Amino acid sequence: MRTQSRRSPRTLIAVAAIGTLITPLAACSGAGGSGSSGGGDSINVLMVNNPQMVDLQKLTAASFTKETGIKVNFTVLPENDVRDKISQDFANQAGQYDVATLSNYEIPIYAKNGWLHSLDEYVEKDTAFDQDDILPPMTKALTAEDGKLYGEPFYGESSFLMYRKDVLEKEGLKMPARPTWKQVAELAAKVDGAEPGMKGICLRGLPGWGEVMAPLTTVVNTFGGTWFDKDWKARLDSKEFKEATQFYVDLVREHGEAGAAQSGYAECLNNMTQGKTAMWYDATAGAGSLEAKGSPVKGKIGYVPAPVEKTDSSGWLYTWAWGIQKASKNPENAWKFISWASGKEYEKLVGEKAGWSNVPAGKRTSTYDIPEYRKEAAAFADVTRDAIAAAKPEDPGVQPRPAPGIQFVGIPEFTDLGTKVSQEISSAIAGRQSVDSALKKSQKLAEAVAEKYEAS
Question: Signal peptide position in this chain (predicted)?
């Protein structure tokens, strides 16, 4: 993922795009959370509170610290809070935190602003890390426009369609190997009510540029639409953007979950797990929870690529990755932590200690050669890897783009723009306004952003 030459030169603070909404956990802070900089034998790590990170925190002392003597002071916060804290600390180059969890949205932007350490020198020296084993789309997405690497993935994901195999079979229906959105809509109508309280499909409707706008933007892409054309003309009022948005809104209103306008990743995951929906289009990361030990739907779910219309693929690309703050006084120790946390042996450690369904996958080729992981993730492992490989951040639609990104537009302003547009779309899902009204307002918002780039 690279920035473009026509991009505005102004330094802007950006917060990370998000492909999933993580279920909130209690925030917790290590010794470094109070603001002290890590010492020579310690580092301060600021990270999101998702389950995989919580596993990491639990495993660090007995593994990494024991092996290296480096103490890790964790500050663990909910997504919105951690993004705010990271943007403040890194933008000011305060140096309070050595390492932070960043995404493939913000790493190219932070790198351009001079807030991150390049990792190339560390990767070159640390041959055991084996950068060639990192899935190519992840390496590319974490490489900035200067050609240097600024992040290492902790886990990666794309998006796909999850469906109840048993429900479709009972209804005499068959899921196509590579479904179109029109086929998905037809199936949703037929399985709506197949079981008491079951809806046809769950789609995010919750406001948020990383919530409803993530899946909706992939639908826009494959329907032939785009937020901006190659000349930075806002295109939210185009026929293709309208068609995709109307399709999405109609589908979730007619055959989607109750309270769709307030449903995000967490709500859809719960609905799918509890048998309240027959299909769900969302992050590939959701499969691990559906197939986890004790899940009521374990073994009942089928997985197929993200539905398409005019494109060959439409799955998104996302990763929570590690970045080292440029102002860190402990970059060498910071790299040692990253090398361990994103290394091959860490995945085996998680599998043995926390269970193979909890392995932070989607980043290394070698993960898919681990027999225990393949057995545990047999239903979705290959579909996930194929979805990541097929993702095209620089060419996700049918026309050239001025900035990279599949479920987001890779510019700093998208955090604000996407959030405001999402509020309009969510309002349409709730029935408070028409899609035409929502997109008319959204077009004006996008035009205001486009003006900055058209003039540069």
Answer: 1-26
- Name the average pLDDT for the chain: 90
Q: Are 213 and 407 in contact (CB under 8 A)?
A: yes
Q: Does the pLDDT of residue 14 top 80, yes or no?
A: no
Give the closest residue to 220 by CA, choosing from 282, 283, 311.
311
CA dihedral over 204, 200, 379, 384, signed as positive or negative = negative
d(CA 377, CA 291): 8
pLDDT > 70: what percent of the chain? 91
The tokens for 425 are: 């779309």
How confident is the model over 45-77, as pLDDT tens digits? 999 988 889 999 999 999 999 999 999 999 999
Q: How many other CB atoms are found less than 10 A from the CB of residue 196?
A: 7
Least confident stretch, 83-87, 148-152, 246-250, 371-375: 83-87
Q: Are 70 and 41 in contact (CB under 8 A)?
A: yes
Strands 152-157 and 159-164 turn out to be unpaired
SS3 for the chain, per residue? CCCCCCCCCCCCCCCCCCCCCCCCCCCEECHHHHCCCCCCCEEEEEEECCHHHHHHHHHHHHHHHHHHCCEEEEEEECHHHHHHHHHHHHHCCCCCCCEEEEECCHHHHHHHCCCECCCHHHHHHCHHHCHHHECHHHHHHCECCCCCECCEEEEEECEEEEEEHHHHHHCCCCCCCCCEHHHHHHHHHHHCCCCCCCECCECCCCCCCCCCHHHHHHHHHHCCCCCECCCCCECCCCHHHHHHHHHHHHHHHHHCCCCHHHCCHHHHHHHHHCCCECEEEEECCHHHHHCCCCCCCCCCEEEEECCECCCCCCCCCEEEEEEEECCCCCHHHHHHHHHHHCCHHHHHHHHHHHCHHHCCCCCEHHHHHCHHHHHHCCCCHHHHHHHHHHCCCCCCCCCCCCCCCCCCCCCCCHHHHHHHHHHHHHHHHCCCCCHHHHHHHHHHHHHHHHHHHHCC
Handedness of CA 22, 27, 28, 33 (dihedral sign): positive
**Nearest C-alpha neighbor of 233 from the set 103, 90, 402:** 402
Question: Whole-angstrom Cα distance, residue 149 to residue 142?
Answer: 6
> pLDDT band at 30, cuts 50/70/90?
very low
Do residues 232 and 402 make contact, with C-beta atoms less than 8 angstroms apart? Answer: yes
Model pTM? Answer: 0.86
141: confidence class by pLDDT, cuts 50, 70, 90: very high
